[in-house]
Design goal:
Blueprint: H1 2-10, H2 26-57, H3 67-91, H4 98-106, H5 108-140, H6 153-169, H7 172-203, H8 229-239, H9 247-250, H10 262-277
Helix pairs in contact: 2-5, 2-7, 2-8, 2-10, 3-8, 3-10, 4-5, 5-6
Length: 280
């Protein structure tokens, strides 16, 4: 009974020799491996604005002027990471994550540190992305018949994590088929949202509302005069969530048909620049 249930949920077990047939096409692989990095763009801008909005609410009218410099700073970090991954792809065309690269070039201890950092990155990417997604869903459901979802956020998060885990247990190819559609839909909707926002801004100038929350007060002994360096650094560090998940693409080139090629190098760099530009 247990075996039947397991086979129903995760599918038939495959031999190691069959792994080569589980490789993904580049279009599907892009959707699977880029989803970690792309999902971060859904909340990276918000994380920056949450910090700057506090300064704006307390009279620092120039607070939002720092959004572009902060985004450029994040983009510079992204370019450095992309260049590093480009070199790694040529050195390890069959796939080499941070652990392998650090271990072979720096030793076992640096390799373990890199592996530990990756584990933290992967856990945070899943937890933060799922939490942000559920928060967006429950927020959109307010005022509708689905408003009751707001009281079950934890359950929804756990259910979605279980669904993602189950999909990945069924194999690379099957999970790729499942995640490709939502990932490309996200990219298209994201570009549409940016385009609509730009058109609305130029066609309806002055229509953007500036709302200051009521009953907002600073903690005792805290001041924003002037806009402190620590506040800007906090906004920068919050916005760096846009970098999470990028390592996934670099460590899984072996799962693509033909391994890593020049096209893969271009793909990794293009994805990285897309992610870095999204917070703007």
């Amino acid at each position: 009974m247990a075996y039947t249930l397991k086979r129903l949920l995760v599918g038939k077990a495959k031999k190691t020799a069959q792994a080569i047939h589980e490789r993904l096409t580049k279009k599907t692989g892009l959707a699977v491996f880029a989803s970690d990095a792309l999902s971060s763009t859904a909340y990276a801008s918000e994380e920056i604005l949450l910090v700057l909005a506090v300064a704006y609410a307390f009279g620092q009218a120039n607070g939002f002027n720092y959004i572009v410099p902060i985004t450029f700073a994040i983009a510079i970090v992204l370019v450095i990471v992309a260049i590093s991954y480009r070199q790694t792809i040529f050195a390890y065309p069959s796939g080499g994550g941070a652990y392998i690269v650090a271990k072979e070039n720096l030793g076992t201890t640096p390799g373990l540190v890199a592996a530990a950092a990756l584990l933290v990155d992967y856990v945070l990417t899943v937890s933060v992305s799922i939490s942000a997604g559920v928060a967006a869903i429950t927020s959109a459901a307010q005022g509708t018949s689905w408003a009751w979802l707001d009281h079950h956020k934890v359950f929804l998060c756990l259910a979605l994590i279980a669904l993602i885990a189950l999909a990945n247990l069924r194999g690379v190819r099957e999970s790729g088929a499942l995640f490709a559609g939502p990932t490309y839909s996200f990219v298209i909707s994201f570009l549409f949202m940016i385009g609509y926002g730009i058109l609305h801004y130029f066609l309806h100038p002055g229509a953007v509302a500036h709302v200051t929350p009521e009953n907002l007060k600073l903690a005792e002994g805290y001041s924003l005069q002037p806009l402190s360096l620590f506040l800007l650094l906090g906004a920068f560090s919050n916005g760096c969530v846009a970098l999470t998940g990028i390592e996934t693409q670099r460590g899984n080139d072996a799962d693509l048909d033909g391994g890593a090629t020049d096209d893969d190098v271009y793909r990794d760099q293009r994805d990285g620049l897309f992610v870095s530009g999204a917070p703007a």
